[in-house]
């Protein structure tokens, strides 16, 4: 199982070359179970509203459509994951990062992220970068 960080979901959805090729293949593989935390969609919408990302039409509708079309599983933020995000050891307080990492940890999944702060967490399994 693979959990996608926001930048990885955006890169995959937009066909961005920043996404490592081996990750692209692994994420696109129909046998891979890919999970997108709900906070990732929220962050993508926020970045679109700020003008950092571009979509056609309403940002909420566009990112929800991309999630549906991807076939990935949506991981809603539940109370247990929210509490876990506060009990795990982090070096920073970014709530979205905490929710994403806690989701991966709770699911026993690898996190697809290039974020050095997340990759440095000793308790978090991340997809390897070659």
Essential attributes:
four-stranded parallel β-sheet, alpha/beta, globular, Rossmann fold, 130 residues
CATH superfamily: 5'-nuclease
| Count of separate structural domains | 1
Overall morphology: globular
Largest sheet: 4 strands, parallel
Radius of gyration: 14 Å
| Total number of beta strands | 4
Spatial separation of the terminal alpha carbons: 19 Å
The poorly predicted ranges are: none
Mean pLDDT: 95
The fraction of residues assigned to DSSP E strands is 5-15%
Just name the CATH architecture.
3-Layer(aba) Sandwich
Note down, in words, how this protein is organized.
The protein has 130 residues and is an alpha/beta fold. The protein has one domain: 3-Layer(aba) Sandwich (Rossmann fold). The protein contains seven helices and four strands; from the N terminus they run E-H-H-E-H-H-E-H-H-E-H. The protein has helices spanning 6-14, 21-28, 38-49, 59-70, 79-87, 95-107, 116-119; strands spanning 2-4, 34-37, 73-75, 110-112. A four-stranded parallel β-sheet has the order 3-2-1-4. The longest helix has 13 residues, at 95-107. The protein is globular, with a radius of gyration of 14 Å. The two termini are 19 Å apart.
């Amino acid at each position: 199982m693979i959990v996608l960080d926001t930048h990885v979901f955006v890169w995959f959805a937009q066909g961005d070359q920043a996404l490592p090729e081996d990750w692209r293949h692994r994420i696109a593989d129909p046998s891979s179970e890919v999970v997108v935390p709900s906070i990732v969609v929220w962050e993508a919408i926020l970045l679109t509203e700020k003008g950092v990302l571009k979509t056609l039409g309403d940002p909420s509708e566009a990112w929800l459509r991309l999630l549906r079309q991807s076939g990935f599983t949506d991981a809603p933020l539940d109370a247990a994951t929210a509490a876990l995000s506060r009990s795990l050891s982090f070096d920073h307080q970014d709530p979205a990062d905490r929710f994403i990492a806690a989701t991966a940890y709770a699911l026993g999944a690898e996190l697809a992220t290039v974020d050095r702060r997340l990759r440095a967490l000793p308790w978090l399994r991340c997809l390897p970068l070659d």
